[in-house]
Design a protein that fits this description.
The chain is an alpha+beta fold. 11% of the residues lie in helices and 27% in strands. It contains four helices and eleven strands, in the order ββββαββαββββαβα. A three-stranded antiparallel β-sheet has the order 9-8-11, with no helix packed on it. Strand 3 and strand 4 form a beta hairpin.
Length: 196
């Protein structure tokens, strides 16, 4: 190998100088280059099946890979991105332990209402909020008084809600999303005797 020779493919002509006859000589790269080359075509490390140049892997893993993980801001668990994608917006309520549990009446039996707020200008059209209401079943374990043994991460008490509250298609039909934000109101009807 010649000193100072460039690394990689080197085109050269035959000894007759004919342009049509060409061969490529591959020179070995620097030690350790193989397996680290940013131009090398590799498969995604998350096993999503995508193949790309190694230098594009970080961006793919961060924002494009359907097998990337997304941490939940509430429970700190990580979920695979393609398992949390769906065709609908879902809403849930879950009873968690708190400092004032001994002052409340159990089981939790108060009416719960979820509303997706229409952000259309009310002077142009009447807002069409999407609303669902339910009364908890007092026999269901998810609405019993949380005990010390029941942690906030206990998967046996996942709560109650609507996995198909509204379709993504219906969300786009009105101004439910405005400035890249949605507003969901969750209200609990509390009896007067607790308020007084």
């Amino acid at each position: 190998m010649a000193t100072g020779a460039p690394w990689g493919p080197v085109p050269s002509r035959c000894h007759l100088g004919r342009a049509a006859v060409q061969r490529v000589t591959l020179l070995p790269g620097p030690p350790g280059h193989q397996g680290m080359c940013p131009q090398e075509s590799v498969y995604c490390e998350n096993k999503c099946g995508a193949r790309m140049m190694r230098r594009l892997l970080p961006q793919h893993a961060l924002a494009e890979c359907p097998k990337r993980t997304q941490p939940c801001a509430y429970c700190a668990k990580e979920f695979v991105f393609d398992t949390i994608q769906s065709s609908h917006l879902s809403v849930y309520i879950r009873v968690l332990p708190g400092d004032y549990d001994n002052l409340l009446e159990w089981p939790f039996s108060y009416r719960v209402t979820f509303s997706l707020l229409d952000q259309s200008d009310p002077s142009l059209s009447k807002p069409q909020h999407v609303t669902e209401t339910f009364h908890p079943d007092p026999n269901w374990k998810n609405f019993q008084k949380p005990g010390a043994s029941r942690s906030s991460l206990d998967e046996s008490t996942l709560g109650f809600g609507y996995p198909k509250f509204i379709s993504h298609e219906d969300i786009r039909k009105r101004n439910y999303v405005r400035d890249n934000a949605i507003f969901i109101r969750a209200s609990v009807e509390i009896p007067r005797k607790i308020l007084s």
